[in-house]
Design goal:
alpha/beta; 15 strands; 188 residues; seven-stranded mixed β-sheet; 4 helices; four-stranded parallel β-sheet; disordered C terminus
Length: 188
């Protein structure tokens, strides 16, 4: 219940159009509340019921969140249609995702297959992050930044195709994303 209260606070913090109890009608809010229930059932070792419920939620809201995904408190999805969050995704606290964001796998990894986002991460519309990459804390990923398959350090803004670091610690720059041990291993 505490996580849902933090999700409501995040909704009001991040959406200037939110008034009164209208948030109950937001598909992103409906999907995260259902996910929190589904994730609880998933952790109990009941895979069929949460998978079935997550598919029903996908049909009703347009957001696909696997019940195995770990999502921190204060999560907010704005205009969530087309959102995909894979099974081994981990999302920190106070993160914001916009519509058509994919946190998916590449099909080349076993075990941990999906991205891990730190705290205070904003992912813009249409961004695609694939594989077991790590996104640091306090990161902004620009709209249509795809396909991000490398780790992103903390305190950065990333944008473009291919995604590049455009700001680090508040200072404008133009840097390639660093190659990671994981991405080097998958290329061999």
């Amino acid at each position: 219940m505490a996580a849902i209260i933090e999700d409501i606070k995040a909704l009001y913090r991040n959406d200037p159009a939110a008034r009164n109890i209208e948030f109950l009608l937001y598909p992103g809010f409906q999907a995260i509340v259902c996910h929190r229930i589904n994730h609880f059932l998933w952790k109990l070792g009941l895979p069929f019921i949460p998978r079935l419920l997550s598919q029903i939620v996908r049909l009703l809201t347009g957001l696909e969140i696997h019940p195995g995904a770990k999502i921190g408190e204060g999560f907010f999805v704005d205009h969530g249609a087309g959102l995909v969050i894979g099974e081994t995704t981990e999302i920190g606290d106070n993160c914001v995702l916009f519509h058509n964001v994919t946190l998916g796998g590449t099909g080349k990894h076993k075990g941990k297959r999906h991205p891990t986002l730190g705290d205070n991460v904003l992912v813009g519309t249409g961004a695609i992050l694939l594989g077991p990459i790590r996104v640091g804390n306090n990161v902004k990923i620009g709209a249509n930044s795809f396909v991000v398959m490398r780790d992103i350090p903390s305190d950065c803004t990333v944008a473009g195709t291919p995604a590049r670091i455009t700001k680090r610690d508040g200072i404008p720059c133009d840097e390639e994303l660093p190659k990671t041990i994981l991405s080097l291993q998958t290329q061999q």
